[in-house]
Amino acid sequence: MKIIGAVIAALCLLSASCKNETTPNETNTTTSTAATITETAAARRPTAMAAFTAATELTVSFVGLNVFVLGNGVERATVLRAGGGHHQQIIFPQAMETTLKAMFSGVTCSGGRCFVPFDGRAFRVVDASGSPSTTPFVQSKDFKLIVTHLAKVPGVGNAFNQANINSDVFDKPKKGKFIAGFFELSGGSVDDVIPFTCTAHFDGQAPSGQQFPRVVKVKFPLSSSAKLQVFEGGTSGWVDVVTLTTLPSPLFFTVDNNVSGAASHFGNYAGVSKSGVHLPDVKPDDPKCIEGSGDVAGCSDSQWP
Fold first, then answer.
1. Low-confidence residues of the chain, pLDDT below 50?
2. What pLDDT was estimated at residue 86?
3. pLDDT of 234-247, one tens digit each?
């Protein structure tokens, strides 16, 4: 032991400094000392920076009370201005923090993400010239099956016929209106639809094993120098936010209009119609089935028509 102590002391004298650390036990003294020397030498060598891989596609996840409006000349995911603590926000990677805070008020950033509120605000993906894609939005089989069709909800009659739809659903963004904002879908395709674990049914109907969407993911391929644009209510049109291909891959945004809780908020979709329709609550088929996140079917995406 005296010999080992002398060796360690000599090492300390030869080095620039010697940390006051707990002395390792006999069985790992030699190994620990060698590892320390190796790590110190490695730390002094220049470290190569991780290679940057530019984004070539964007995936946008839609969560909560968003209606996919796919008719009357528009293809957009529309964010409802819902009460009860619904988030009504779009979540970006924190790499965009400086740009976002310079452009928008109310931006908060933490944990690698930045949160931008929807308030009469719309977003879209465009090419380098600022032109939106002419490729129609592509639905999947699961999208058609799982994302609730408002016109097919029991008891709604003709409330969701085109003549009865609130005109703000199709219009440009406006601050303070029932529609908090939207994300344009042209050029995108449904990548995945994740249903709630618990199946459910509309109040007054028998349990039927119906699925409701917890998350809808839409993927946008990015051409060279593709950009994200925003249209603010009260302004004259679209302006650039960021060149998406300058951001690292993989690139994800989230349109979040969710709120955790045990109640269905499906009734908020009544505002899409101007007929004064009442929408039934969504009830779990098995009252004992509890979603792990606290979210419930009925606070979920829908589609029109």
1. 1-44
2. 85
3. 999 999 999 999 99
Can you tell me the distance from the alpha carbon of 170 to that of 164, in angstroms, rounded to the nearest whole number? 12
Same domain as 82, residue 32: no
Exposure of 2 by Cβ count < 10 A (0-12 exposed, 13-18 middle, 19+ buried)?
Answer: exposed
Residue 71 placed within a domain: yes
For residue 37, the enclosing domain spans 2-44
Q: Are 37 and 19 in contact (CB under 8 A)?
A: no
| Buried-exposed string 267-298: b where 16+ CB fall within 10 A, e elsewhere | bbbbbbbbbebebbebbbeeeeeeeeeebbbb
22 with 124, same domain: the answer is: no
Q: Is 44 exposed, middle or buried (0-12, 13-18, 19+ CB in 10 A)?
A: exposed
State residue 50 phi and psi, 5-degree precision: -60, 140
pLDDT score of 24 = 35
Lookup: tokens for 18: 């010697």
Helix (H) or strand (E) holding 43: helix 29-44
- Count the helices and strands in the chain (H runs, E runs): 4, 17
Query: Do 99 and 31 share a structural domain?
Result: no
Q: Which residue has the tokens 């920076």?
A: 49
In this structure, the answer to whether residues 125 and 240 fall within a common structural domain is yes
- Give the predicted TM-score (pTM) of the model: 0.82
81 assigned to some structural domain: yes
Q: Are residues 30 and 125 in the same domain?
A: no
